[in-house]
């Protein structure tokens, strides 16, 4: 009887249990109601789990009622939902700043909460808003410590990235690692990017000799497991215009000013009657094109099963220039294939291959005689065309020099073409040897080919330096290749539940090789671009018309890293890398680069309690050394790369000679990096703060062209002085970033971010015999205006200080003589400062008159979402950077900017702008007068978008439809007179000299995003 009763009780209990187990069907959506595929769905305290499909749907069978289901997805907050019925809809809260987010750190990854270095991330959502043509543009203003400058606003022009300042007078660009291999940021399609991670401190030591300038890690988009095929199409079209025109003098103003200048110089008036001149020609209006088109389309297909994920994409970009139209156009096509496959429980294959093709045409820019230089300096009294419809010739008078020509004729007679093809990618294999230990191998490669052609048409501009007496065509072909092989193992273990260890050890082999060939042919048939090919030229030249080069360099590296944490509270990481490079001589090929980073998660301590305001606080520090070998190949060897002419049997014969003087003692340039920082989350994770103080000291700078005895023949064609380790530079500063993000309701969310970087740059050592190195150019025939010198910022401006304008002869007589500068001073001339107090103004009075490196840079970004509308603004500011105004030709008859209308015309008239005269003065020597504060604030991007309601979109068979309109480079607030206060030639010494920078265009865009 008891046994039967027990059986009945057990049966009832079992029946009850089964009655409480139900099948659950559900959907997971994001904050805007769009389906989220690939979300991990797991029954808590159970092995049962699944992922959402393409429609965000999932199904769980036999789930006990009352149990919890955990939903997790990268970029969203993990949620737990109690099962109460058979239907479930879960809305995931966006959490891009989640501490559980995985951050790539090189040869591995870490959760953000465990990172001990200075690391910043830009995600694909930011790229979607910014719509950059080149990825580098997305780093400006979005990450503290990173400054991006444009060399030109022309389509396809390169950009320069500087992480925590300029540390060397050589190569300062960071190294880009794309999915594990060295690549080129500028060639990628921005829409292919998932995340961009910037390693700014000693965390980058795992990359050794290529990490001194920082590391940029790019992760491209991949498909997700167990997700249906997803098709994403993005398109935008727009038009461009110049963001700025400079206020030059019109014809009447120019003639009146020229008359005054000639009268002051005691010469006859060139324009006795100015009444009929009117406004004349606006040469900038003639040169700048309005409505220059830009079009971009890209298509991405992603998906995956439980074993394979894939991502296929293609893009097309076509952009014309705002100067010259298709004469400065850029076209880029890309194609990418990403694939990941679980071959077995132990083996995983992954590959990513990218093909890029682009063509580019360019105009003469950023120098004396450039198109914009001529547009600013040609007088408004001249017309673009003469009575016969031909381009007007600019007179070759002394007052207009020999380099100022009609810019429209210059554009029309510019012919060049450049095309570039590149295939790059990697193939990797992961092997799980046993629990916690994975062996990874990867082969990365880059192979590229480029062809160039430039045609010089036989033409006369009326006795100018641009006159071409004999037509010619120059063609070039370049082949560059590299590959890397990485083999490394990662071991992860947990000891006694409190100690967590991750160890990494590996090796890298890198080889880079290539060649180039260039040749020139003369007498092009019909003097025409159509026939511009060397095979058709028959002209003979008495000088060398071809050249070539070949190179081969290699690195062999070993590296190791050990990461340890105790209860996720105390974090420690140590790493070391050994690099061997063929760029250095036998005694200096090997370098060792160690570093250590540590962190303390204070908020995990028991004494911290459960505060309401602060939810997370981490202190961290790092110290280590990294290397830099970015110098030309074979600097330690003597090569026959120079040109020479010899006499044989009484005849001159072309031959070869020694090139750069060799230096067998060349060694690594070393960066010593120190950083302390904190990460802080407050107000229920709505506010995230990151702050860092850093010191970056670069030692043993690899400085080229150190002056040596002329006996060595360093002045011969193709020859040069040697490269030496001869300097030291220190950058120190403070970074601060704060982000606030809140969701006020299901309909309205808001996020705002601000970051600022304060930086001080100082040269500590220059061992080249003179104590300084010069660079840059100003005017014609003047000494170099920029320097690298001990105790000063790198590339500071070296010239004469000014103290207003002489108002009368008594002031001139009382002031030290300025005759040594080229002319006696007169009332209305600049008054130069006697810096050394010796009673004479001469070269000994030159001093520091400006610094091109900004004191602070900052970004302010805002995003709003209301129902189906979204709005975003991104801005950037630079404070304290100076720039040299060098785009005006200091000739008497050249046109001027209208600030000259406030010139000195008599005692008390002004104390800032000197008189105009054709007579000799010292007003044009390089001085403070030509150095301006180039601080600026720029609205980089503003965008308004509308997304179709998910319920409506899904009825149309699509998961997302978004339309948007935006403006890039909307407006720049600055007092600087030139085209672009944020431009730079990229040179560490002389980069802040404005030769007439091509302005960044203002771009109006309309686009759409469609997901199927």
From TrEMBL:
Q: How does it sit in the membrane?
A: Multi-pass membrane protein
Record-annotated TonB-dependent receptor plug domain positions: 111-215
Keywords, A to Z, come to: Cell outer membrane, Membrane, Receptor, Signal, TonB box, Transmembrane, Transmembrane beta strand, Transport
What is a single Pfam family found in this protein's UniProt entry?
TonB_dep_Rec_b-barrel
Residues folding into a coiled coil are none
According to the record, the signal peptide region is: 1-19
Q: What is its main location?
A: membrane
| InterPro entries assigned to the protein according to its UniProt record, in alphabetical order | Beta-barrel_TonB, Beta-barrel_TonB_sf, CarboxyPept-like_regulatory, Plug_dom, Plug_dom_sf, TonB-dep_OMP_SusC/RagA, TonB-dep_OMP_SusC/RagA_CS, TonB-dep_rcpt-like
Residues of the TonB-dependent receptor-like beta-barrel domain: 380-970
Protein location: Cell outer membrane
* PANTHER family (UniProt xref): HEMOGLOBIN AND HEMOGLOBIN-HAPTOGLOBIN-BINDING PROTEIN 1-RELATED (PTHR30069:SF29), TONB-DEPENDENT OUTER MEMBRANE RECEPTOR (PTHR30069)
Q: Tell me which family the UniProt entry assigns to this protein.
A: Belongs to the TonB-dependent receptor family.
Give the matching NCBIfam families: OMP_RagA_SusC, SusC_RagA_signa
| Name of the molecule in the record | TonB-dependent receptor
Organism the protein comes from = Flavobacterium soyae
């Amino acid at each position: 009887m008891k046994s039967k009763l027990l059986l009945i009780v057990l049966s009832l209990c079992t029946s009850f249990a089964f009655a409480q187990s139900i099948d659950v069907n559900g959907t997971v959506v994001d904050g805007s109601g769009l389906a989220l595929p690939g979300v991990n769905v797991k029954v808590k305290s159970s092995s049962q789990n699944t992922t959402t499909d393409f429609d965000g749907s999932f199904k769980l069978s036999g789930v006990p009622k009352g149990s919890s289901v955990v939903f997790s997805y990268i970029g969203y907050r993990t949620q737990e939902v109690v099962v109460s019925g058979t239907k479930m809809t879960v809305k995931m809260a966006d959490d891009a700043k989640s501490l559980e987010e995985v951050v790539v750190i090189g040869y591995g990854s870490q959760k953000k909460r465990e990172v001990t270095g200075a690391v910043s991330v830009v995600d694909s959502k930011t790229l979607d808003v910014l719509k950059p043509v080149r990825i580098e543009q997305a780093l400006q203003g979005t990450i503290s410590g990173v400054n991006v400058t444009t060399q030109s606003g022309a389509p396809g022009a390169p950009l320069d990235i500087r992480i925590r300042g300029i540390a060397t007078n050589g190569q300062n660009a960071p190294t880009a690692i794309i999915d594990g291999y060295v690549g080129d940021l500028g060639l990628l399609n921005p829409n292919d990017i998932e995340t961009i991670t910037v390693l700014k401190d000693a965390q980058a030591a795992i990359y050794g000799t290529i990490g001194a300038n920082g590391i940029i890690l790019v992760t491209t988009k991949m498909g997700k497991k167990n997700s249906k095929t997803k098709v994403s199409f993005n398109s935008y079209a727009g038009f461009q215009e110049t963001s700025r025109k400079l206020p030059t003098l019109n014809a009447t103003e120019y003639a009146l000013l020229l008359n005054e200048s000639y009268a002051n110089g005691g010469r006859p008036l060139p324009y006795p009657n100015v009444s009929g001149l009117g406004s004349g020609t606006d040469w900038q209006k003639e040169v700048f094109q309005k409505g220059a088109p830009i079009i971009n389309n890209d298509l991405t297909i992603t998906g995956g099963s439980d074993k394979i994920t894939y991502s296929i994409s293609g893009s097309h970009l076509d952009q014309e220039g705002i100067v010259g139209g298709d004469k400065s156009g850029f076209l880029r096509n890309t194609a990418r294939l990403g694939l990941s496959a679980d071959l077995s429980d132990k083996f995983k294959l992954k590959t990513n291959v990218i093909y890029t093709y682009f063509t580019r045409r360019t105009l003469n820019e950023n120098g004396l005689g450039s198109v914009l230089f001529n547009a600013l300096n040609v007088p408004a009294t001249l017309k673009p065309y003469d009575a016969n419809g031909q381009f007007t010739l600019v007179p070759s008078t002394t007052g207009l020099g020999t380099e100022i020509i009609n810019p429209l004729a210059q554009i029309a007679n510019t012919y060049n073409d450049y095309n570039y093809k590149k295939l790059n990618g990697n193939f990797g294999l992961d092997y799980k040897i046993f629990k916690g230990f994975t062996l990874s191998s990867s082969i990365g490669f880059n192979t590229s080919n480029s062809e160039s052609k430039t045609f010089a048409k036989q033409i006369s501009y009326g006795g100018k330096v641009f006159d071409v007496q004999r037509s010619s065509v120059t063609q070039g072909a370049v082949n560059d290749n590299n590959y890397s092989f990485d083999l490394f193992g990662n071991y992860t273990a947990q000891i006694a539940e409190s100690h967590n260890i991750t160890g990494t050890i590996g090796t890298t082999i890198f080889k880079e090789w290539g060649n180039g060939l260039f040749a020139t042919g003369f007498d092009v048939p019909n003097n025409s671009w159509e026939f511009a090919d060397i095979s058709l030229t028959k002209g003979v030249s008495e000088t060398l018309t071809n050249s070539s080069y070949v190179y081969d360099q290699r690195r062999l590296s070993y590296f190791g890293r050990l990461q340890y944490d105790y209860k996720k509270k105390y974090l420690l990481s140590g790493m070391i890398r050994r690099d061997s490079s063929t760029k250095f001589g036998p005694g200096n090929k090997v370098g060792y680069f160690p570093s250590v980073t540590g962190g303390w998660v204070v908020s995990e301590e028991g004494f911290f309690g459960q505060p309401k305001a602060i939810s997370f606080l981490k202190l961290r520090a790092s110290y280590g050394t990294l290397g830099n070998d970015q110098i030309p190949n074979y600097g330690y060897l003597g090569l026959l790369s120079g040109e020479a002419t010899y006499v044989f049997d009484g005849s001159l014969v072309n031959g070869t000679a020694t090139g750069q003087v060799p230096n067998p003692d060349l060694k690594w340039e070393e960066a010593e990096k120190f950083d302390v920082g904190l990460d802080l989350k407050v107000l229920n994770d709505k506010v995230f703060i990151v702050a860092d103080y850093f010191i970056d000291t670069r030692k043993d700078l690899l400085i080229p062209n150190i002056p040596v005895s002329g006996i060595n023949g360093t002045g011969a064609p193709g020859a040069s002085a040697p490269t030496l380790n001869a300097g030291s530079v220190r950058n120190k500063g403070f970074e601060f970033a704060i982000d606030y993000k809140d969701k006020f309701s299901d309909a309205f969310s808001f996020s705002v971010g601000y970051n600022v970087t304060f930086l001080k740059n100082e040269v500590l050592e220059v061992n080249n015999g003179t104590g300084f190195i010069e660079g840059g150019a100003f005017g014609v025939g003047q000494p170099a205006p920029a320097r690298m010198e001990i105790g000063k910022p790198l590339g500071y401006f070296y010239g004469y200080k000014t103290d207003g304008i002489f108002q009368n002869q008594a002031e001139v007589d009382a002031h030290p003589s300025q005759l040594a500068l080229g002319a006696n001073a007169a009332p209305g001339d600049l008054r130069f400062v006697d810096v050394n107090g010796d009673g004479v103004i001469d070269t000994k009075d030159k001093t520091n008159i400006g610094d091109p490196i900004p004191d602070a840079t900052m970004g302010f970004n805002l995003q709003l979402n209301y129902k189906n509308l979204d709005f975003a603004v991104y801005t950037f500011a630079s404070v304290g950077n100076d720039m040299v105004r060098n785009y005006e030709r200091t000739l008497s008859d050249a046109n001027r900017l209208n600030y000259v209308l406030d010139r000195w015309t008599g005692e008390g008239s002004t104390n800032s702008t000197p008189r105009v005269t054709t007579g000799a003065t010292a007003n044009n020597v390089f001085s403070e007068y030509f150095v301006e504060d180039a601080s600026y604030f720029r609205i980089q991007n503003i965008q308004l978008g509308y997304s179709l309601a998910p319920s409506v979109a899904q009825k149309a068979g699509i998961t997302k439809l978004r339309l948007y309109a935006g403006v890039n480079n909307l407006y720049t607030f600055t007092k600087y007179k030139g085209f672009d206060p944020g431009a730079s030639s990229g040179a560490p010494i002389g980069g802040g000299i404005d030769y007439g920078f091509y302005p960044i265009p203002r771009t109006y865009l309309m686009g759409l995003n469609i997901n199927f």
